[in-house]
Amino acid sequence: MNTSTAYSQRAARSIESAGRVGTLRGASVQPDLRRLLQVTTGLVLTALTALVVVFTVAAVHSNNQIDELHGQGVPVTVTVTGCLGLLGGSGSNPAGYSCRGTYVLRGHRYTQPLPGSSAFRPGARVAAVAVPGDPSLVSLESTLRTQHASASAFVLPIVLGAVLLALVGLLVWRARAGRRPAPSAIC
User: What DSSP line would sit under 54-100, residue for residue?
Assistant: First the structure.
């Protein structure tokens, strides 16, 4: 019998006697599933909380911008300087256009991207609304007619908040149920 065969037989007997498979030099891994579940739950709750906050702030910001455009916006005429085609998916499908234009507001000339995805020919003049205190806040007049501040912007944060509250409620309920004393047997 050669040395490598003897070593293999000893290793096989050692594994059989230990009753373990997959150990490396006697070390084994025993994952703490309870701790893993706690960490995962904490990460999920943190992510949901962050999403609720971010989407709520975005909804408030969007509604405020729409209100500013309606309340403080002044009409301007944007002269389109150029448009680029946008591609979607694999790069072979048109997804819209990104256009830029210039306009004059209170004696100052501004160059801004035009909101929306419509194509305009260079030199086209488009009716828009801009806010004097924030010249980067500009919207096409035709788009602004259809936009209004709305509670529907808060649907997603409300749904995510409800899921968050349900998970927290479930965790609190399970924690309380785990601390209750077992009912005593009546003889």
Answer: HHHHHHHHHHHHHHHHHHH-EEEEEEEEEEEEEEETTTTEEEEEEEE
CATH code linked to domain 74-148? 2.40.50
Amino acid identity for residue 41 in this structure? T
In angstroms, the Cα distances linking 150 to 75, 104, 157, 165, 178 are 23, 30, 14, 24, 44
The whole-number mean pLDDT for each consecutive block of 10 residues of the chain, a chain of 187 residues, reads 62 57 64 88 95 97 94 94 85 83 92 87 94 90 90 95 94 83 60
Q: Does the global pTM surpass 0.70?
A: no
Sign of CA dihedral 12, 15, 17, 19: negative
Please report, for the chain, how many H helices and E strands are present, in that order: 4, 5
Cβ pair 160, 55 in contact under 8 A: yes
- The domain spans of the chain are 74-148
Max Cα-Cα span within the chain: 99
Q: How many CA atoms lie within 13 A of 76 on its CB side?
A: 30
